[in-house]
Task: structure prediction
Amino acid sequence: MDRSRSPADVAAEHEPILAAVLGRDPDAAAAAMRGHAAHTGELLVAQAAAENGGPAGPAGIALIRDPTGESTT
Result:
């Protein structure tokens, strides 16, 4: 977290998940969680690529998102 996002960024990303759970809206909770997991995956792929000397390419992002942009996780 400390490398790519601030604690405020992390809290803001988790807020829709919590709101949906507390609101007992499973569809919204699932969508928020999928978006969160995909975003986190993208950050981790970018971080790993940077640590290995290069940018994250489309192939790395394709591991996380399908061609429609939906999370595969």
